[in-house]
Specification:
Four copies of one chain form a homotetramer. By secondary structure, the first copy, chain A, is of the alpha/beta class. Chain A folds into two domains: 81 residues, ACT domain (Alpha-Beta Plaits); 195 residues, 3-Layer(aba) Sandwich (Rossmann fold), CATH 3.40.50. Helices cover 33% and strands 30% of the residues of chain A. The first copy, chain A, has eight helices and 13 strands. In chain A, the strands form three sheets. A seven-stranded mixed beta sheet of chain A has the order 7-6-5-8-9-10-11, with helices on both faces. Chain A has a four-stranded antiparallel beta sheet with strand order 2-3-1-4, covered by helices on one side. In chain A, helix 3 runs parallel beside helix 8 and helix 7 packs across helix 8. Chain A is globular, with a radius of gyration of 21 Å. The first copy, chain A, starts with a strand and ends with a strand. In chain A, 46% of the residues are buried. The model of chain A has no long low-confidence stretch (mean pLDDT 96). Chains in contact: A-B, A-C, A-D, B-C, B-D, C-D. At the A-C interface, strand 11 and strand 13 of A face strand 11 and strand 13 of C.
Chain lengths: 284, 284, 284, 284
Amino acid sequence: MQGLILKIDCPDQHGIVARIASYIADHEGNLIELSQFSDRADSKFFARVEIDTTNLKVSVEDFINGFITLGNSLSAKWHFRTLPYKMRTAVLVTKTDHCLNEILWRTQLGEMPIEITSIIGNRDTCKQIAQNAGIPFHHIEMDGDQKEEGFKKIRSILHEDKVELTVLARFMQILPDWFCQEFSGKVINIHHSFLPAFIGANPYRQAYERGVKLIGATCHYVTSELDGGPIIEQEVKRVQHFHTPQDLLRLGRDCERTALASGIRHHVHDRTIIHNNRAIVFPD
Amino acid sequence: MQGLILKIDCPDQHGIVARIASYIADHEGNLIELSQFSDRADSKFFARVEIDTTNLKVSVEDFINGFITLGNSLSAKWHFRTLPYKMRTAVLVTKTDHCLNEILWRTQLGEMPIEITSIIGNRDTCKQIAQNAGIPFHHIEMDGDQKEEGFKKIRSILHEDKVELTVLARFMQILPDWFCQEFSGKVINIHHSFLPAFIGANPYRQAYERGVKLIGATCHYVTSELDGGPIIEQEVKRVQHFHTPQDLLRLGRDCERTALASGIRHHVHDRTIIHNNRAIVFPD
Amino acid sequence: MQGLILKIDCPDQHGIVARIASYIADHEGNLIELSQFSDRADSKFFARVEIDTTNLKVSVEDFINGFITLGNSLSAKWHFRTLPYKMRTAVLVTKTDHCLNEILWRTQLGEMPIEITSIIGNRDTCKQIAQNAGIPFHHIEMDGDQKEEGFKKIRSILHEDKVELTVLARFMQILPDWFCQEFSGKVINIHHSFLPAFIGANPYRQAYERGVKLIGATCHYVTSELDGGPIIEQEVKRVQHFHTPQDLLRLGRDCERTALASGIRHHVHDRTIIHNNRAIVFPD
Amino acid sequence: MQGLILKIDCPDQHGIVARIASYIADHEGNLIELSQFSDRADSKFFARVEIDTTNLKVSVEDFINGFITLGNSLSAKWHFRTLPYKMRTAVLVTKTDHCLNEILWRTQLGEMPIEITSIIGNRDTCKQIAQNAGIPFHHIEMDGDQKEEGFKKIRSILHEDKVELTVLARFMQILPDWFCQEFSGKVINIHHSFLPAFIGANPYRQAYERGVKLIGATCHYVTSELDGGPIIEQEVKRVQHFHTPQDLLRLGRDCERTALASGIRHHVHDRTIIHNNRAIVFPD
């Protein structure tokens, strides 16, 4: 299908849906799917629209440019994406490979419209996996005082590769503020706990010691606040008293894989909108 | 809020959303929530729209009547409901009372906008519960050849009470065809299995014998086909080898209560549309 | 069934199960169910044994007394309970009644072997429910400086009624230290969040603001540390961006009811053993 | 750890646990974990015992042989397995590779103590995956009248490789009766529905047409009855009206992977005992 995804948010006001839908209909676009959400507390309107452009009576370019008048009159922020597409994605790893493998597997299967441009590791453990998958692997040392330099190298790679999405697939480094800000809304992390419980290091050990009966994983956007960004997806799994911290680690991997894959999927399908510190996720 | 819910389905065609949303905007209605679904296999369009009518520039009546032109031009079936409202509901029971109690409890708490006009039992076991809740109880004998007569009496009650929804809350009688047809789309049943597994009698015994590891309950619209109508909601619960059929019955009650309450909620909020033998459920 | 439940914990050592099981067999008791757990980190052994005493060749009393020698030789702590029994239980409430109703309903249905000796409220909102159920209701003022006195009155009631279990069914008061200590291991609370996230007041508001995608409830033993005691059971439910704090409150009620009922059930069946700050729960 | 797993079933009778535990203690074995289940309806006893043999005062061989007297006196069937071990496993596939990948991934990670001796396909689609993993791949044609011959070839491979477990990882062939009987209790299948619903071909299409709100996958032992053998594990996932059969297939893959991995894990840890058409699964 030739098409467009429109994501838009603006102050809530009278007749928004009518005006957007009419713009599409007037240009002979076919509205395939419309999801909207009004946050009444904030008087904000959010929508995601999928449009079939096969019979559009103008060019896709003109359609997109023509929207500016409407968008501005709504005081909106908006974004069009042309379908089909693949989101250019970098995956950052340390040693652990289960999240990386999950992403590769779902990509190869066509479950996620992404193109993995590079795998970047502060260890070289995952090099072989990258090579088997035919994806460039960059080993960037980040120990001690190499850290700042390391993140600058990563930034260069992301720019060179025109990366739109960076996935922290169990990447065991805290991102510097400037990095979080530069790539705001474009970095997804998987944290191995049911946030906001067990922020920081060794969450499975923390979970074991607290004696929780469910463990979890949280996929979220990265912000300057550690493990504090907008949550896209969470998964949990039941555990029992006889499970050791090692068992929790094993069982938690399944939550991590599922939550991360699902979070990435929502993002690359443009189904998420960040609103304050919360993520609107239009389901699919 | 003064408002309207519009449910509509029609052949899929160009510009439906634009036309509906514009109709609302043109009359100064405020679109609160729009859920739509296009079944591409069938080329059918379905939508549910919630409209704030506070600032409507015509009367609600004129707004509803004025829609006829648009509705007809779309070859649509549609339905308006005025908010706030309470759906007049009858609950049919036999002996078991947990589903009845759940409905009463959620109604009293204001979770579900329903008014229970009567509780009807082919046993009088639940009479006391009805009296405590201040709801008329009708004991209608249905054993042996009293069955046909019994269902006629129920029909009379439903008509007299202007009932819009009939809930079979563990009502242990198979409805006659004429009843299913007369009240098509207006009778909700809870079946104590994960349909389509274990249709008919003693599903927990069947589940035990099959050795399933998850048991369930299914809330569905009643049709002439036993346990075969459109499914609104399903719930499951994990079981183990040491659970007896009696345990499954106990554990299953929780699934039944949750699935039935959720199914009723979807229905009374006009969030369901029956399409062939499937139920579209716009989430809330 | 005439029977006994034995709960025992002791330092891990050679041959414990053999010695316990032999003691039972030697006295012609019939071992119905044996659950054991060895915490290797702590070298501690825990077990729960269910014994059919129908054919016991000594009196139950002698059987219990005779165990002292074995128990002492294992340096064990142990407890026998005679079956069938009903655990004498007090329920503490404030205004909210859904947890109270759930307990009453499951008790009446015979799901939980408890006898509710009294319902105690710092508001009188639940008085009518208590009266309908034929259970004494005590309204104890606890506002301002009446709090300490109030808890002393509660203690008196618990002692007079020979209460074994106190359930905080959405009781909106923090228990004083002396109360927690006196009734240690005998007070169960339901907290309306997925602990350890959102400790303290307004957890649903906290959950909303953090934008979690799953909300939960936690049933735990009460200790001096607020919401910090051993966790018995946790439940979660998926939520979405459009759910308001009010929706979370509604959805959370289902988690609370389920987790509390399940936690009480585990406790009254003597399936829990507190070990440090964790609860061992032998499943049923 | 040097150890043994004992699986045993016998008619229920007085003192079984005492006798087994005493046998272990008398030989200075250390009982690590004991799981037992008495099926009262059938008067049958089942147990799984894990024994640390480090301090055994006889050889492991003598310990195992010495058990014969006790086992026979209980009219038991029993089986000892020496720890650590890896179960020799063959994986049968057609084209679909997600279940195969999952098994390989979990094996490499050390989650499952198995050694994959061969991958056998009636298509050669998975050949590359096998080669990357360094596992022999056998392409065996089974179309048309090659089927019977094909299964004989598979039998030969299983015998030559001393395979203990055969996993049907989305293997699209119905096994002949003689094969099911010869390898009874040693063949595990993953069926892509929540059995017993949607037996046979195209279960996701069936599920779509029935309009279920949860789809599932079932891991079970293979018997002569199609999709009718003892169930080890089941997983479900929520679906909505807008999910196409293609979506169900995608979402179902996650259920299949999880249920199959979990089922295999239970089997290779000797945590399953088949009893009539049900599988006892001692949890871990």
